[in-house]
Design a protein that fits this description.
- With 876 residues, this protein is mainly beta.
- The protein has 8 helices and 50 strands.
């Protein structure tokens, strides 16, 4: 290859740099002192229930690494001194938890002092905003989706079915399971199902990302899979009712109409199951045969299935083809031959089918007249596409504690992301099966689609005739985590990924205008990072990291300068990141961070190659020479513990976004192609949160965010979409982006009754073992654009939607019975049945009449109505 030397040089540089996308274990560190503040040398600090522990050094510092995310009891002992036991020490993946001990003199050594640690303190060494997900939140989320938990956090906005973190575009958040990305590289979106019961630890980072995280500009959702327990445990749960999601996170594709975003699902029938414990083959079968493996082997399995929308009603009115079925499962087997070594293999599977609920087709089955000609109703099943999605993969990981302060981790993974669309036929197959691309271009003529005077279709089939999209991603990575002293620690690693991509899309307009896109590609990437943390005097923690990424499209493109095919050069990204955490006493910390972040555009933007009808025009072609989109972000904030379990946090951020991809017009609009534009997007904002952790009678939070998001275009397709409507975009000014929401606020109050709490009525206590939670959310209006009065659009997003507000209620009660832990839960979403404007289908009509449904009366203009969900679970 022409650039083989360049690529080999990159590989060598990354090897010397020595990426793991994320850590999945945490670190416990701290200092042991006496009553006078002098360091206690040689004290023993143990994590109860494990074989992990350490002795303090000459400064009284100790460090315990490679702890799985969980809550632990930690004990500090020293001969002739008190023993201090701290309960509830939370370990978070990829973070450092600091617990200091002060031991008094006790010559007999019989005094034991027990205290409870607040989980808030784990953030005091982190120079960024991190939201730790409470295990209860994972179990009580009505939709069962991690993306809806993300959408509820400060600084996160859900708009039009997409999630936007601190002003970024949708698709700028990476979702990691055991350190491996779960986003499809085709669209940079997350649509895989993960049973939340399979998660043992979860955190959401919306502030500065450390150097170990790449290919993400706005945030990281870090999930750690459950490894199972040494005792058998099982639970089963079922739910029935309706639910409202926050986002669909569907990526926008070339040559594909967008369905009306559906955030409500009715008639949900949900079943969940979880099993964990000793792995039966190695723990039972092999010993029965006289074979015994060293160490322990555990297994954990979680599965979830959901069928919904089988009736014909949505939450606001009549709606056809509004159904959704999905299933997912995660299994993980962990083998620990020695306390210092663990090996795990995990598998994930996710599948979904969804109907297509576009309002213009809702009367397709009804008879009607068009220009006086009668048309008989036909079945929508043979006119609208069915959307399928399937994702699966396998991970293999080896963890080794090389020394007491150094661990290494090696991971290999293989992932497949598939999306496809089909239109059914009466014979039981799919329309267009086994047809080559040339047929669609030369012989296929779509049946004429005829609409009545209101715009409803009565003949023909939907233009989204066919889609096959597949992405295989194979990754290998090695990372090292070392804490040589209590004051210094570092991480480093390398990774490499190979991609195998394929897409075949048919978009059939009327009158012979058929667009066919078929392409395949095999790009590759490598990455490396180094991150170091130093604890200075006074507890100040300085963080610095450097990340180097390389992406090779591994393809050629036509050069207009050389009039020949040339190889596309690899793209390099160098990302420095720094942070500072300054404590003010034991209860407060000031932090600041600055970093450069990047993200490669969706692979379809790079490799799209299309054949099309030249008479139709307006085609889009890919650009394999696209560079990464970039963000420079600055954050400053503070966290203050007002009392045990109560924390006040504030943060201010600023982001400068460059290199965003848009569609550029060429040859006077004959075709468009993707290109990094020269605009500068900008996002800035302020967040404040007052939170009280669960664990007591009263818990909850109060949060407020103010944010501004501006840029030239909200999506890469804006110039193309306006162009095909005959509207020229000449303005180079920044506009408010579609998801710009100046004010958001939220509040939650949860009252929890424990065993024996509350009044007794005839020996029955109605409020014991129960919880009542009320959640309220407010958002100011999103911007929208009025239609132009001429062929030129004067201004984008100058008007505003009305504000939105929603109140939800959840009541749960535990009822132990015959040794079983049973629970009933009732969730009511949109308790007051408020009608929020979700989407405006005719902006000019809305401005004059206030009706967002448009001339066709589309009910999806309104947010979902009040929905109920009843759930029951049994655990052993």
């Amino acid at each position: 290859m022409r650039y083989r030397g360049t690529w080999l040089g990159i590989a060598a540089l990354l090897t010397l740099a020595s990426v793991s996308p994320a850590g999945v274990t945490g670190v416990l560190t701290g200092r042991v002192t006496g009553t006078g503040g002098a360091p206690v040398v040689g004290a023993t600090v143990m994590v109860e229930g494990t074989q992990f522990g350490a002795m303090t050094d000459s400064d009284g510092e100790y460090t315990i690494i490679a702890l799985d995310p969980a809550e632990y009891t930690v004990t500090a002992r020293m001969v002739g001194m008190e023993t201090r036991v701290t309960d509830g020490v939370g370990i978070v993946a990829d973070q450092v938890t600091r617990v200091d001990f002060r031991l008094g003199i006790d010559p007999a050594g019989n005094t034991v002092i027990r205290v409870t640690q607040s989980r808030s303190s784990i953030l005091h060494d982190l120079p960024a905003t991190l939201h730790i997900i409470d295990p209860d939140e994972l179990q009580t989320t009505p939709t069962g989706r991690i993306i809806d938990i993300l959408a509820s956090k400060p600084g996160v906005v859900s708009s039009g079915g997409g999630v936007h973190v601190r002003g970024g575009r949708t698709g700028e958040v990476d979702y990691l399971l055991d350190g491996i990305s779960m986003r499809s590289p085709m669209s940079n979106t997350f649509n895989a199902g993960i049973p939340l019961g399979a998660i043992s630890g979860a955190s959401i980072m919306t502030g500065g990302l450390s150097a170990e995280y790449g290919n993400a500009m706005s945030g990281i959702v870090n999930l750690v899979g459950d490894e199972g327990s040494e005792e058998y445990r099982a639970s089963i749960a079922g739910s029935y009712g309706g639910m409202i999601g926050s986002s669909s996170d569907d990526g926008q594709r070339v040559y594909m109409e967008q369905t009306d975003t559906d955030l409500s699902r009715l008639g949900c029938r949900i079943a969940e199951i979880k099993l964990s414990g000793p792995e039966p083959i190695s723990n039972t079968l092999l010993p029965a045969m006289g074979l015994r493996l060293p160490g322990t082997t555990t297994i954990s399995f979680s599965g979830r299935a959901n069928i919904s929308g089988r009736d014909t009603l949505d939450s606001r009115g009549y709606w056809e083809n509004n159904w959704n079925s999905d299933a997912s499962g995660v299994m993980k087997v962990t083998f620990r031959p020695t306390p210092r070594t663990s090996m795990s293999v995990s598998g994930l599977y996710s599948y979904s089918e969804r109907g297509w609920n576009e309002w213009a087709w809702s009367r397709y089955h009804r008879p009607g007249y068009i220009d006086g000609v009668p048309y008989y109703g036909r079945s929508q099943d043979y006119a609208l596409p069915v959307r399928f999605s399937e994702n699966y993969g396998i991970n293999g990981t080896v963890n080794r504690l090389v020394t007491d302060v150094t661990s290494v981790r090696f991971t290999i993974s293989s992932r497949r992301f598939m999306d496809w669309q089909r239109i059914r036929t009466p014979e039981g197959g799919y329309f267009g099966e086994d047809l080559p691309p040339s047929y669609w271009l030369t012989q296929f003529v779509p049946e004429a689609r005829l609409a009545d005077s209101l715009g409803y279709y009565h003949t023909g089939a939907h233009p989204n005739v066919w889609l096959d999209s597949r992405a295989d991603v194979n990754t290998a990575k090695f990372d090292l985590d070392s804490h040589p002293t209590g004051r210094f620690w570092f991480k480093s690693g390398v990774s490499a990924s190979l991609y195998d991509l394929y897409e075949f899309n048919v978009y059939a307009l009327q009158y012979g205008g058929v667009y066919v896109a078929q392409w395949d590609a095999e790009p590759r990437s490598m990455a490396g990072f180094f991150q170091g943390n130093v604890r200075l005097s006074g507890g100040v923690v300085a963080t610095g990291g450097l990340r180097l990424d390389a992406f090779d499209p591994n393809t050629t493109m036509f050069s207009q300068e050389e009039f020949t095919e040339v190889e596309v050069e690899p793209k390099l990204q160098l990302s420095p990141r720094v942070g500072l955490s300054v404590p003010f006493g034991e209860r407060s910390v000031f932090f600041t961070t600055y970093g450069h972040y990047f993200q490669m555009p969706p692979m379809s933007y790079l490799f799209l190659e299309s054949s099309y009808n030249f008479s139709q025009g307006r085609a889009i072609t890919g650009n394999p020479d696209l560079d990464a989109e970039r963000t420079s972000a600055f954050e400053v904030g503070t966290r203050y513990m007002l009392a045990d379990r109560t924390e006040l946090s504030m943060a201010v951020y600023y982001k400068d976004i460059t290199g965003l991809v848009s569609t550029e017009q060429h040859l006077e609009g004959a075709y468009y192609y993707f290109e990094n534009d020269d605009s500068h997007g900008m996002a800035r904002g302020f967040e404040i949160t007052l939170g009280r952790e669960s664990g007591g009678t009263l818990s909850g939070y109060l949060t407020y965010s103010m944010g501004i998001a501006k840029g030239r275009f909200s999506t890469a397709f804006d110039p193309y979409n306006y162009g095909i409507e005959g509207v020229a975009l000449f303005s180079r000014e920044d506009n408010y982006l579609d998801w710009d929401q100046l004010h958001t606020a939220g509040a939650s109050v949860q009252l929890t009754g424990f065993h024996g709490d509350g009044p007794s009525i005839g020996g029955f206590r109605p409020f014991e073992n129960s919880s009542l939670e009320v959640t309220w959310n407010y958002g100011s209006g999103f911007p929208y654009t009025l239609p132009p009065s001429a062929e030129e659009l004067i201004a984008l997003n100058t008007e505003r939607y009305p504000f939105t507000m929603q109140t939800d209620l959840r009541f749960a009660r535990r009822m132990p019975f015959a040794g079983l832990d049973t629970q009933l839960q009732l969730t009511v979403q949109n308790l007051f049945n408020r009608r929020n404007v979700f989407r405006i289908y005719d902006t000019a009509l809305f401005r004059t009449t206030g009706d967002p449904t448009g001339e066709m009366g589309n009910p999806r203009a309104w947010s979902p109505s009040r929905l109920f969900m009843l759930s029951a679970s049994v655990a052993i």
